[in-house]
């Protein structure tokens, strides 16, 4: 939900897009575009619309804070009604993600790990070569292992890198769902992503900036089933 | 400003703490504790109080998103009145931090880089050994170089690791201000941090949870000048 309209119009426009696309989507990802300008009450209202359409609400904060802050953040998010949160496993386990993971499991909430983002500069982070236990290794592969070990509910891999989606899908034996952002505006392809092993497509601006979000989502949905 | 009171009390309590401590501090760091529950209007009000006391407002989002999202986030933050934002250089430059850095410079806003956080698990990220140009290197040292190369306005190094503060202060020739969180509750020490080269101390819970925030901040301030 990457809306860039004036703050006063965001809630109305968001609800309108959700209502027109709800038959073709399964969840709504909400990020800083809405979380910063909208109040607690407005976010609650938005999520009640999302839930009334049998969709899930994912908070895309890319959390990478100390545990005390992560816990306060998810307390607010779960209170708002969110069903899952996106975190960066870079922040580490002890006094980092550990308490957030435990708390989220106990509340039956989802935690999705960033494993490789969709933009060019992602190579400066996720694509780094690291040295672990005497061996050279790509950092994103370390993040895949963290996702398994720390029991993530899903992993995020940019649609702009379909070969990585395939590699990661093989490594997880399709046991952890792969969410792939970067479809459309950023260059990612629906069919290639699905064929590579993506379970869920994350599409933002191609829908939001379209004159006919319903049509766009129904086309994406249709294309995602083409080869099945 | 790590407040954990009910959302309805946050604004009042925040303003009260700022007013009682403003003589002993130079800036207020605002994070998810306030940004999630408060509305745009409430954050604006809080920042007007901060500015009326001649203090600066820093948004601690630890931003690590794609450029399009980063730009929308800072648009909201600068509109709220914030003077600086904390980002994670892990996200990379191209289509990552580059446009945010350019835009922030043009608006005379500050961008602070995380270089090593204060919690135990920070070693899982900032403490990684990486391979670059055929050489083994600590990732936090790569982040110091990014801070120099990408012209960060400040770097953040946890007070729980004073030897790293010293190492990083030497590497930057004290040309980039070092902000150090983790003082007090997390175990960081005021005097050790200053002696190691920290320019600014970030203190959260020791002030917020105190019965007398004014006294706590005046003591920290006094201790920070002990050896000068």
From TrEMBL, chains A, B:
Residues binding substrate, per UniProt: 29, 118, 204-205
Catalytic activity, as annotated: orotidine 5'-phosphate + H(+) = UMP + CO2
Keyword Nucleus assigned: no
InterPro entries, per the entry: Aldolase_TIM (IPR013785), OMPdecase (IPR014732), OMPdecase_type-2 (IPR011995), OMPdeCOase_dom (IPR001754), RibuloseP-bd_barrel (IPR011060)
GO molecular function: orotidine-5'-phosphate decarboxylase activity
Keywords: Decarboxylase, Lyase, Pyrimidine biosynthesis
Recorded coiled-coil stretches: none
Domain of life where this protein originates: Archaea
Keyword hit for Cell division: no
Residue ranges annotated for the Orotidine 5'-phosphate decarboxylase domain, each copy included: 8-220
Pathway where this protein functions: Pyrimidine metabolism; UMP biosynthesis via de novo pathway; UMP from orotate: step 2/2
Gene Ontology terms: biological process: 'de novo' pyrimidine nucleobase biosynthetic process; 'de novo' UMP biosynthetic process
Broad class of enzyme this protein falls into: lyase
EC identifiers of the protein: 4.1.1.23
Residues annotated as catalytic: 60, 62, 65
Name of a matching Pfam family: OMPdecase
Family membership noted in the UniProt record: Belongs to the OMP decarboxylase family. Type 2 subfamily.
The protein, known as: Orotidine 5'-phosphate decarboxylase
Gene encoding the protein: pyrF
């Amino acid at each position: 939900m990457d809306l860039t309209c004036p703050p006063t119009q965001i809630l109305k426009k968001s609800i309108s897009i959700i209502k027109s696309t709800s038959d073709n989507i399964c969840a709504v990802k909400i990020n800083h575009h809405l979380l910063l300008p909208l109040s607690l009450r407005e976010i609650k209202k938005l999520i009640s619309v999302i839930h009334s359409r049998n969709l899930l609400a994912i908070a895309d904060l890319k959390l990478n804070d100390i545990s005390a802050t992560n816990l306060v953040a998810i307390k607010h998010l779960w209170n708002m009604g969110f069903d899952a949160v996106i975190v960066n496993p870079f922040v580490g386990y002890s006094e980092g993600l550990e308490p957030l993971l435990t708390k989220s499991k106990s509340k039956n909430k989802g935690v999705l790990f960033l494993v490789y983002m969709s933009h060019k500069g992602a190579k400066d982070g996720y694509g780094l070569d690291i040295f672990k236990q005497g061996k050279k290794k790509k950092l994103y592969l370390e993040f895949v292992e963290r996702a398994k070990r720390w029991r993530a509910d899903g992993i995020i891999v940019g649609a702009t890198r379909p070969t990585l989606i395939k590699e990661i899908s093989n490594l997880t034996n399709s046991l952890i769902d792969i969410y792939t952002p970067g479809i459309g505006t950023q260059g990612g392809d629906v069919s290639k992503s699905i064929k590579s092993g993506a379970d869920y497509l994350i599409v933002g601006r191609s829908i939001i900036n379209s004159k006919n979000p319903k049509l766009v989502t129904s086309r994406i949905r249709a294309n995602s089933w083409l080869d099945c």
